[in-house]
Amino acid sequence: TFDPPADAVVRRPDFLLGVATAAYQIEGAATEDGRLPSIWDTFSATPGKVLHGDTGAVACDHYLRWEEDVELLAGLHVDAYRLSIAWPRVVDAAGRPNEKGLAFYRKLLRRLKEKGIRTSVTLYHWDLPQHLEDAGGWRNRATAYRFAEYADLVSRELAGLVDFWSTLNEPWCSAMLGYGTGHHAPGQADLLAANQAMHHLLLGHGLALATLRRNDPASRKGIVVNVGRGTTDGTTPDDARAAELFELQHNDWVLDPLLRGQYPPRLHDELWPAARPPVQDGDLETIGTPLDFLGINYYFRTNVRADGNGGYVEVPLPGVERTQMGWEVHPDGLRDLLTGFHRRYDNLPPIYITENGMASDDRVVDGAVVDRQRIAFLERHLAAVDEAVKAGVDVRGYYVWSLLDNFEWAFGYERRFGIVHVDYATQRRTPKRSAELLREFLARRRSPS
Ligand code: GBH
Predict the structure, then answer these.
(1) Is 226 in the pocket of ligand 1 (CB under 6 A)?
(2) Contact partners, residue 109, CB within 8 Å, separation at least 6
(3) pLDDT tens-place string over residues 175-224
(4) Predicted pLDDT of residue 305
């Protein structure tokens, strides 16, 4: 059975338990109904960027199979579903609404509502329209304003159908992996570009938040950030400082401007003196607009040591449990980050864990997928959330990443994060053991007898 030792969260009827996906990772239908190309179409079509040359052109074909997928969701008894809207589907090259693209999300959200499933919608899960990248992408301040216009259009069209709006998914990844290391689209590797991109992403977030408030006052609005736990097995003061710098670079870089109205001074003084963000008057006030909630995505812990150069270097710990991604299974990291944020920020908004989960090399054997590692993973992370709640952190929900196996960005289809297995040759969905146990657990939770 699935039986997380997590009374404080699972017994609360208002604590939302759900699953999450993102548009480019599941929809496919890349040219259907006037969808424009995004930076991920371009990047994944570039040889050497994505494992096995996989692209999101077909993915889980969710754009055409959405009804079957909503049935799947409803059958799981989830309280809520987190999805994202593809910007290139709903705005045309001239900035006008694409009615066909909008109609897709309208019918999807309506059906979810009919089924009694709460909706959590992210406006930007990494699929920037390519024409905006051609004009400088997130390095260009103008993109922040294009994003706010997109938010305006979508929130007018879909007002009333969305319970939770998130502006961005993981701006750290968009900025750092997209422009700083080049591991993600658009594939630039320049620290200054990453800092420009981060600033314009956060500015776009702040501008969009104000627009969402005007157009859809009854919904809750926030942002989703990825957070990383950094610790050290080293014994010197420099090693301890290295772990601090890791979290400064991953967490404070994003959370400080959002929750304290300033970039962390140490980040630019000590780590990146030559890569300061292009802040203009008033920007930090816009970025620091109060949030109704903060979405947190957590996956793993990173062990670091001092690199002897004032920075840090990752030193993988031997003998720890890891996933198919090579990521360490470390539930305490989630608890410790949550309690740490609770201490660091006086005005920490209510938190939703908007993603948590793991990849495994799952196969269908005799019609079943036995993903034992995932079951234990989810139980232990829910227990970690429970500990944080008992320590006073206001966490109100938890979403498993992901409903379906899907296009795992630079790792393509090889890495399987779903609680439902997808056979890409036939598009057949097979609920894994984790999905079956979760379904029983959620059904029991609804009607305890
Ligand atoms: C999330 O991002 C995404 O939102 C989702 O789309 C994706 O499918 C899912 O997780 C699984 O990957 O310090 O350079 O080692 C992934 C979160 C955050 C993972 C940063 C890797 C460390 C990068 N990522 N992280 S690094």
Answers:
(1) yes
(2) 119, 121, 158, 161, 162
(3) 999 999 999 999 999 999 999 999 999 999 999 999 999 999 999 999 99
(4) 98
Residue with tokens 């604590």: 15
Task: Report the atom number in ligand 1 closest to the C-alpha of 357.
Answer: 11
Between the CA of 268 and the centroid of ligand 1 the distance, in Å, is 23
ipTM of the complex: 0.92
- Peptide bond connecting 120 to the previous residue in cis, omega within 30 degrees of 0: no
Known catalytic residue at 170: yes
Rounded Cα gap, residues 398 and 389, in angstroms: 12
Q: Supply the residue whose CA is at minimum distance from atom 7 of ligand 1.
A: 408
Q: Which residue has the tokens 């000590």?
A: 270
Q: Among 80, 30, 27, 82, which residue's Cα sits nearest to residue 57?
A: 30
Could you tell me the pTM of the whole model?
0.98
Amino acid type, 29: A
How far is the centre of ligand 1, averaged over its atoms, from the C-alpha of 367 (Å)?
A: 30
pLDDT in tens, 39-62: 999 999 999 999 999 999 999 999
- The finding on whether 249 has its CB within 6 A of some atom of ligand 1 is no
Q: Is residue 115 classed as helix, strand or coil in its secondary structure?
A: coil
Residue of 60, 249, 355 to mutate, ligand 1, most atoms within 8 A of C-beta: 355
Q: Can you give the chain as a three-state secondary structure string?
A: CCCCCCHHHHCCCCCEEEEECCHHHHCCCCCHHHCCCEHHHHHHCCCCCCHHHCCCCCCCCHHHHHHHHHHHHHHHCCCEEEEECCHHHHECCCCCECHHHHHHHHHHHHHHHHCCCEEEEEEECCCCEHHHHHCCHHHCCHHHHHHHHHHHHHHHHHCCCCCEEEEEECHHHHHHHHHHCCCCCCCCCCHHHHHHHHHHHHHHHHHHHHHHHHHCCCCEEEEEEEEEEEECCCCCHHHHHHHHHHHHHHHHHHHHHHHHCCCCHHHHHHHCCCCCCCCCCCHHHHHCCCCCEEEEEEEEEEEEEECCCCCEEECCCCCCCECCCCCECCHHHHHHHHHHHHHHCCCCCCEEEEEECCCCCCCCECCECCCHHHHHHHHHHHHHHHHHHHCCCCEEEEEEECCECCCCHHHCCCCCCCCEEEECCCCEEEECHHHHHHHHHHHHHHCCC
Q: Name the strand (E) or helix (H) holding 296.
A: strand 293-306
At 331, the pLDDT band (50, 70, 90 cuts) reads very high
Answer yes or no: 133 catalytic. no
